[in-house]
């Protein structure tokens, strides 16, 4: 068996589960009810079986308390079928049940038989003789426990694994709570400063070993006399729980003791390998470790060694040796498990113990640790494996008791696409009743809706008890008063006064008539003051805090959210007399916690029910094409007129024909209509057509569309020429330019550029031509069978911690192990270099897709393309929906077919042709070829529906026979920076720059989705790191295709824009946190960004000497760091009061770096930073 290193996989699992051990180790400490110990490996076993047992990892959060019989009372297929049916019946999440279609409708069905197709993970167990032997030796009860209650992973050499059963491991990896920094146990002894002046924590470089009994145990003469409760599980489903003190929605576990051993200080550096010492029983041993991060924030440090699948258990045994002293003489060593705790970067954001403690004193409510912003590095011990359940307010979800405040979110998506008037407003709805029929809401109804029943109460459902608790008696007249005020409130007059608008005019005059978020807030504030009784607030302080939260919420972006914890921050609970049963007397903590929960329910309803409902009723809220996530608030009269103008213009193109009522009723039952909506642009409206629905017919249609995309993707991979000159992104553009740039730099020659944009590409594709093109693509595969596999991948990124991604992969069906077996599939991915040091989780696998069925579906999809707009239905006679998943590929295949027909030899003369969907760019040294290309496209290609938009055509050469430049065509100089798809290309050297002109007048606040997170500082760091990874692309930083001057300039502008993003993130921190309260964290964040940028620059220039500690090479790390100092000083000095504590260290480091670099290197940096603020950046709004 090939050697491998599973230490990274072990580290990932150890950071997510409390207990990680091999199947052999799991079986070694099992004692059956009959008194005998489990024997999994016998002397006569083959090497194959021993390797298999040592390559299966058992991961749990609970230890096994007692074990029933060792008897085998069922076969492996029967046991597997019973477990699958039981999982589906109880609606549990388990990898085994992915894709299993048992609906448990027939309650008399045989539970020991399969009632649907099973996944490869289940088939892997079903068909394996090794698993059968394991089940025979462990017995049915243990086997059932492993499949139902544990997470099993099978290691696949050389360095990966896949999950067989258990809750999907990706559920434990959160992408919204910040960077998952994890380490192998360190103890924070203090802080020191390195040469850059950054705060650096002194950390332990060794492992930390903690077990279930090692965390909280009573000692008696060095022996353990008790076990930790709550960490044990019985096979019968009963759990022993430690008594917990409950305060409202917060569970406070008992105290936990953590044993750690101090180790020598580890200094930060840039080397991947470090030599550290591990102290074992008083003896210090040198250990070589691999660090996944460079610098002061160490992450996932693991021992280096050659460990293949057979050596995994030996590796874990070696790691457990230092804990013999911790285990104690009376405790089995197997119970002490390797635990990897999270090492989140530096400290958390500011005001960790100030504002939050102030809030706690006011409310008496002790907030969960996940909510309270606290110093990140003050955490020690293992990461909690609890997966936080997130949801909406209880009145909407109907979940009572409600979720904790930190897990309850109100999303801005709830405001979108409304504008239908007050008829469907919540307070205007009627409650359905079986006896009385629909009736208007009363005060008692609102009390039950907000605090007990949820919105389902309006449909007639009512839970017991019917009598309200005594505490809520006083709320009934208050809600009655609220309803009376609502029915008398002149909403329309207030709206017209605060947000005036004129609903007449042309599109150009109506598009700017959207209300600013501040104007919408003024309207909402006046309505709240007029409708909500003052008794609800309790005090002006609470009212002002709520209004401030409303203002912040209305200013958020499209995908952001606000937690109930933020909404409740600094609220004075005891000011609200309606919460009190007794107006005098002592208020115990439990009572105060309950009051806090009830007040949270009311405020959540006011924001999510009243405010959002009011905004949806009075405004049509939509995104725009100009700003990525910014929301526009249109009065519904204005939006109705805009839609009418946009739709009449869209209909005038002759692409749709209206269907009569008879034609609609005669449509095939398989027809799935699409819905048309418009998104405002700068000078018009863009139509978006999407299939929306959750019914079975819609889901089947969307599945078939994905299968069409998969099959076309397989055909394109086997014959790339079908796509013509299509490029899908920066990587493809870099690949194409790399083929011509070296020759241009060696022998410069005149290059002629032509940029052409097709007008309405999606809407103008003729159906006949589409059928012809796609028919040719699928003609050779109609008899082929395709397989589709969906899987998730979890891995540890060097700088960004734990990450996950979901992959959908299609290919021709092959009867090979790699295509039908999950283990073979993982091995094939590793051989191809696509996966390493990762954990894969299968989600779906199918092999029943035929090429002829896909072509038949595509033909049917085009012929029965029905679009709904309002109450009318239309048949789309031309074009394809813009919102479909397959639209871009269909467009590229059609234009690729056109290119192969009209421009077959365009790249044979030393040039290249690129097309990003419908944006063409020709680069050629042949002037006549450039003119012919432009003339052909300007004349249009009706066969393919290709009509050029002259306003988006640009050239850098005289147009010859045209004499003068046609109207709208831009004529640029021969040597210039040529714009195309957000890029600027030097027409002489082919250097590539980013075009920042598109950021003019835009707010970077809306280019980031921040929202509410449990750890705002980590969320900010994760966001900035991930953006940096996408922006530091080889297209801009590769010295083989760009000059050194261009690379320096690209780095400076990239970092300068990142400094603006840093400011935007810092201004959006929750709970009133500021940079000045924890400046060391943010200073370290800047240095981490500089390190990551330096790392990415080197990845883009593999094989090129950029510089080392001797200050040799063309681009040193010190140069990158100095660029960060210059850029951040320029941006942050504009807001001196906010970043006062960061400016001094940045200036100090800047002076040191300037003294280090000197000469030409320093001059190169100053050249890139001149002017300090480029023209494109002056109009950017931070």
Automatic annotation (TrEMBL):
<comment type="function">
    <text>Telomerase is a ribonucleoprotein enzyme essential for the replication of chromosome termini in most eukaryotes. It elongates telomeres. It is a reverse transcriptase that adds simple sequence repeats to chromosome ends by copying a template sequence within the RNA component of the enzyme.</text>
</comment>
<dbReference type="Pfam" id="PF00078">
    <property type="entry name" value="RVT_1"/>
</dbReference>
<dbReference type="GO" id="GO:0022616">
    <property type="term" value="P:DNA strand elongation"/>
</dbReference>
<dbReference type="GO" id="GO:0000781">
    <property type="term" value="C:chromosome, telomeric region"/>
</dbReference>
<feature type="region of interest" description="Disordered">
    <location>
        <begin position="187"/>
        <end position="248"/>
    </location>
</feature>
<keyword id="KW-0808">Transferase</keyword>
<dbReference type="GO" id="GO:0003720">
    <property type="term" value="F:telomerase activity"/>
</dbReference>
<keyword id="KW-0548">Nucleotidyltransferase</keyword>
<keyword id="KW-0694">RNA-binding</keyword>
<dbReference type="GO" id="GO:0007004">
    <property type="term" value="P:telomere maintenance via telomerase"/>
</dbReference>
<keyword id="KW-0539">Nucleus</keyword>
<dbReference type="InterPro" id="IPR003545">
    <property type="entry name" value="Telomerase_RT"/>
</dbReference>
<dbReference type="GO" id="GO:0046872">
    <property type="term" value="F:metal ion binding"/>
</dbReference>
<dbReference type="GO" id="GO:0070034">
    <property type="term" value="F:telomerase RNA binding"/>
</dbReference>
<dbReference type="InterPro" id="IPR043502">
    <property type="entry name" value="DNA/RNA_pol_sf"/>
</dbReference>
<dbReference type="InterPro" id="IPR049139">
    <property type="entry name" value="TERT_C"/>
</dbReference>
<keyword id="KW-0158">Chromosome</keyword>
<dbReference type="InterPro" id="IPR021891">
    <property type="entry name" value="Telomerase_RBD"/>
</dbReference>
<comment type="similarity">
    <text>Belongs to the reverse transcriptase family. Telomerase subfamily.</text>
</comment>
<dbReference type="InterPro" id="IPR000477">
    <property type="entry name" value="RT_dom"/>
</dbReference>
<keyword id="KW-0460">Magnesium</keyword>
<dbReference type="Pfam" id="PF12009">
    <property type="entry name" value="Telomerase_RBD"/>
</dbReference>
<protein>
    <recommendedName>
        <fullName>Telomerase reverse transcriptase</fullName>
        <ecNumber>2.7.7.49</ecNumber>
    </recommendedName>
</protein>
<keyword id="KW-0695">RNA-directed DNA polymerase</keyword>
<dbReference type="GO" id="GO:0042162">
    <property type="term" value="F:telomeric DNA binding"/>
</dbReference>
<feature type="compositionally biased region" description="Basic and acidic residues">
    <location>
        <begin position="219"/>
        <end position="232"/>
    </location>
</feature>
<keyword id="KW-0687">Ribonucleoprotein</keyword>
<keyword id="KW-0779">Telomere</keyword>
<feature type="domain" description="Reverse transcriptase">
    <location>
        <begin position="660"/>
        <end position="985"/>
    </location>
</feature>
<comment type="subunit">
    <text>Catalytic subunit of the telomerase holoenzyme complex composed minimally of TERT and the telomerase RNA template component (TERC).</text>
</comment>
<dbReference type="GO" id="GO:0000333">
    <property type="term" value="C:telomerase catalytic core complex"/>
</dbReference>
<dbReference type="Pfam" id="PF21399">
    <property type="entry name" value="TERT_C"/>
</dbReference>
<keyword id="KW-0479">Metal-binding</keyword>
